[in-house]
Amino acid sequence: MSKQKKYPIDKIVYPVQKFIQHEKAGGITLGISVIIAIFWANSAWAEQYFHFFEHKIGFLFDGKPYFEYSIHHWINDGLMSIFFFVVGLELKREFIGGELSNPRKALLPIGAAIGGMLVPALIYLSLNQTGEAHSGWGIPMATDIAFALGVLFLLGKKIPISLKVFLTALAIVDDLGAVLVIALFYTSEISLPSLSIGLGFTGILYIANRLGVRSIIFYAIIGILGVWTAFLLSGVHATIASVIVAFMIPADVRLKESVYLTKIQNYLNRFKSIDPNDKIPTLNNDQLHILDEIKTDTNKAIPPLQQLEHAMHPFVTFLIIPIFALANAGVSIDIDIEKLFSTNIALGVGLGLLVGKVVGVVGFTLLFVKLKIAPFPEGMNVRNLFGLGLLASIGFTMSLFITSLAFNNQENIIQAKIGIFTASIIGGLLGYWILSGNNNK
Fold it and tell me: Which of 117, 195, 296, 344 is deepest in the core (most CB within 10 A)?
């Protein structure tokens, strides 16, 4: 059998594709983006960095501006809506057929995630009981799934696969918790007419799903122009609309696996029966027709939910999240120590993540095991559970996002960012050190 033909462009494309497919690539890309943002914010171009994201973009109709928001706002409400859409797709898949679909298996990571959200919030609130600082309690509740899993995958085969599954399930439940916190507590004044319109469009998507509509374009048009726009105008954070729309995407197949295998085998037999002509680069009409049928049936055998998730994941991981990090991670390290600790925000966020996450994840997990609600996954022990708790304290993306919702005062935002960065770096390094020394003991 002849090998696949190679082209000069493959020498460029193949290494990029190989990197993108690697498990830790997302964490590496995010880390590079954070470093660039911090360097930029502390360079000779710092003023241009901060000023750039304040430029406004909108639409002009009949001399009146509409949807006129800063670049920073468009990134946090627009691009991050796509991130939350993919989060919603992952959540739905996990609940339908993933680690969270089995109640017995799901109980332990769900308990760990709940503990990892409650304890950090309580620590933060105990240090920031009044004033504007009080509203930052949601910041240390979040775990950055890309960074945490990136560190875990750096360890390779030193740790059992059950730990990776446990941390993934924990982080996904954590994402769901963050979405609910944003929806319930970080929402501005609500416009009921706009919200009603958004919910009306959501109803259309639900009915379409039940009727068997599988056109991704249909869901995109109704989801963006209907649900997302209405939620944006309603005061409920627009990212919540993305999660709702994601849950409306069909997750079933039109062609069962056994039927698909039979049909594909028939197509291949028909394709083989046609005399091949390798001397010319084009196919004949019969070959084209068979390949079109294979493509059509393949699409029927893949749920639209997974089609979208698979297609959008690289776009979110390697474009949207890095852009978000560039826009939000920049903080000047030329900080007045007195101003940094003029409130307990940095301390609350830092201790909430570094101490609260570990105590919550480890404590609730051990409690569930002790009460025999759920058993330890195979290969897990107290030491590597402690290491996972430290990795859960990495809170970059979601913590930075909630910071942008919690505070308007730039000084408070900087204090929160310092707390996030400090706890995330320490937690990531300590977690890696503990897990790397574990060696399956």
Answer: 117
3-state SS, residue 111: helix
Q: In this structure, is residue 232 part of a structural domain? A: no
How many domains does the chain divide into?
2
Residue carrying structure tokens 């996450």: 357
CB atoms within 10 A of CB 50: 15
Secondary structure (DSSP) of 70-110: EHHHHIIIIIHHHHHHHHHHHHHHHHHHSTTSSHHHHHHHH
pLDDT digits (tens, 9 = 90+) for 352-361: 999 999 999 9
Task: Look up residue 229 and give its two tokens.
Answer: 């726009």
For residue 229, the SS3 value is helix
163 in the same domain as 38 = yes
Q: What's the CATH number where 360 sits?
A: 1.20.1530.10
Dump pLDDT digits (tens) for 356-390: 999 999 999 999 999 988 888 887 889 999 999 99
Return the minimum-mean-pLDDT range out of 30-39, 42-51, 89-98, 326-335. 326-335
